[in-house]
Design brief:
This protein has six helices and no strands. It has helices at residues 2-49, 59-82, 86-108, 122-136, 141-162, 164-197. The radius of gyration is 22 Å and the shape is flat.
Length: 199
């Protein structure tokens, strides 16, 4: 009796260890995929420069782009370490992608007119709404969903102020990304509530 219980306990520990190892391997693969994708994206302009004169990046361009990629990937990895909830991780990924594209477009060509147009600074306010809302929500999924919905509203307000003619398609694109992130955070909040209610 004692021997069979010991074997069962040892088997349970081994299974738990295998599950943890598999989770760690999955996380490691995801990290490699995220950082590998970032490295590939950073190399794309260099490759494009070999085939066309339209892309002419200098060291400063690569430094800024690389710093932005590093910040986005580092933030995602921190979020991934905080929780194993897939919906939460996906929500963070979508929000970071939207932020990255918004900042890069503003720096590269500008969204409202050219990159020198001071009206483009309003998009800094859009990001401030999202970041401020996330801090107030303490990065909890339910509050994050509200913060991203507010970010979508701020994005639409910038378009209204600037005039829809300039930014209609791009505004729709970014609003869709912010709302997708908000819905994923809502899903993460529901899953968190169900897990908390489980006996």
């Amino acid at each position: 009796m004692f021997y069979s219980d010991a074997v069962r306990v040892h088997g349970d520990k081994a299974m738990a260890g295998n599950t943890e190892n598999k989770g760690g391997q999955r996380g490691s693969r995801w990290r490699r995929a995220v950082w590998g994708t970032a490295a590939f994206i950073l190399l794309l302009p260099l490759l494009a420069m070999q085939f066309t004169g339209e892309v002419a990046w200098g060291p400063a361009d690569f430094a800024i782009f690389g710093a932005m990629l590093f910040a986005a990937c580092g933030t995602y990895e921190m979020a991934a370490r905080m929780t194993g909830n897939t919906a939460y991780r996906a929500a963070v990924g979508v929000a970071l992608a939207a932020s990255f594209i918004l900042v890069w477009m503003n720096l590269a060509v500008g969204i409202i007119g050219s990159e020198d147009n001071p009206a483009n600074l309003m998009y800094g306010g859009v990001l401030a709404v999202g970041i401020g809302g996330a801090i107030l929500a303490r990065f909890q999924p339910h509050g994050m969903a509200r913060a991203l919905a507010g970010t979508a509203l701020a994005q639409a307000l910038v378009a209204v102020i600037a005039g829809w003619g300039y930014t209609l398609i791009l505004t729709g694109f970014f609003v869709a990304l912010w709302l997708t992130s908000a819905r994923l955070f809502q899903k993460a909040a529901r899953e968190q509530s169900l897990a908390g209610a489980a006996p």
